Every structure is written in structure tokens, then in C-alpha cells.
């Protein structure tokens, strides 16, 4: 029976296998695109929040370079260069995502409701936390009181936004499609990471704030740091149970297992910065 006009020939179909794309169904490509010639529009269509893991780690490197105790001439300049690279990548990724949502309006809501891609929405906020910390470390000594006041306001705005993000994302996970123990990944911990980083951000900003402003910032940072660590500990028990009962994840998802060390590493970071 010949295929109807509405059907797509098998040789012009390609199944989307990337769970981070936030798309379902089949992607239509011409013959030359199947051989790797994919246009910029198609690439932007599948530009996801997961790209902010790059700026998340780059900002962490700049933060680490600023805290190395054994310093040499030029180390601060290296950290500033990494910070500039981080800011450049962050703006590029923001522009790419904005373009995607303008060209494909439905993908914005879909990216926030997708069970996998939405988890990486947290990396956008983690990148912002690293940027704010680096601005204080590298820019604070060279500026006036205006930066101190600006960062104080941004801290509370960041705290409010990330608290709403954590509650909203977990509410979606709790009320959405049931998830099984076999499908558990460390990415389930990501929604609480941004609010947990209020502790790291408070430790960085608190020393430069007046006492009457520093105390509320440090109390909020300590509270949300403890909240994030407590929730992460609950997830770690589930994760270990999943590994014991189901074995290692599939090979293509095993690189994501490194997310599990993030909570403890940020705890060490805030202890190092505030010491």
C-alpha cells in the first residue's frame, strides 16, 4: 500500500534520542541534513538549559583561583580572564535561549515542564550565583559603596527567585508523571542547588557588608545551606538504593553521576571562604 501524502518516508525520519531536547515525536530532516548539514535554526531549536553547566563550572574555576592561598604574580589576572570568559559565555547562552524561545514560543513552557530538561534550569541560577560571588571578589576592592549596596539587593532577589524555583520544580516532580527508582538520576538534586548556594554567596558577601546587613544575610545563607544539604542527603539515600538494586546507569548517562559530589563540594567551598 503506497504511503499517503501526509506520511513521512522512512528515509527522511530521524528519532530524537536526546532526552534533554525537550521534544517528543519525530524530527523531519531532508536527505542532506541526515548527513550532518543541520541548519542554525534547527540547532537553536534544541539549545537547552543544560548548556549553563559550562558557565557554572567556569565561574567555579574563577572562584577557586581567587581563593588559592599560595599566590603568585598574575594569578588574580588569570582569574579575571576566566571571569570575563564566563560572562561572555553566559551572555551568549542567554542570547541563544532567548532566540530559541522567540523562534519557537512553545518551547519555553515545554523546557520548564519537561521531566529532564527542566532539572537543568537550576544551572542557570547556579551560574548567576557564581557570577555574583566573583563580582564581589574581583570587583569589590576596586569599587565604592554602590557595589556593596547593589550586591546586597541582588542577594535577596536571588534568594527569593531560587526559593520559588526549588519549590516549583519539586512540586512539578511530585505531581507530574510518576517516576520510578530505576529512573533516578543525581539531576533530581539540581533544583535545590541554587537556593543552597545562598550559603556560599552569603559567605562571600557578608564580610563586606555593614553588621546590620551582614547578620540577616549570614542567617539566611546558613538556613538555606542547611535546607539544601538536608534535601540532598535524602536523595543520596535513594540514589544509593537505586545503585544497589538496579546497578549502574546506562553508559550514556553515567557522566552525570558527578552531580552527586556537588553538594559536598559546595559545603567545603563555603567553609573555605568563610574561614
Q: How would you sum up this structure, described in words?
A:
Helix 5 (121-139) packs parallel to helix 8 (198-205) and helix 6 packs antiparallel against helix 8 (198-205). The chain has a single domain (38-274), classed as Glycosyltransferase (Alpha/alpha barrel). The radius of gyration is 21 Å and the shape is globular. It has ten helices and two strands. The termini are far apart. With 275 residues, the protein is mainly α. Residues 3-34 have low confidence and may be disordered. Strands 1-2 form a two-stranded antiparallel sheet. The longest helix has 36 residues, at 211-246.
Rounded mean pLDDT score: 79
Name of the CATH first level: Mainly Alpha
Shape: globular
Structural category: mainly alpha
Number of structural units classed as domains: 1
- CATH overall fold name: Glycosyltransferase
Question: Could you name the CATH homologous superfamily?
Answer: Voltage-dependent anion channel
Beta-strand residue fraction: under 5%
Going across the biggest sheet, name each strand in turn: 1-2
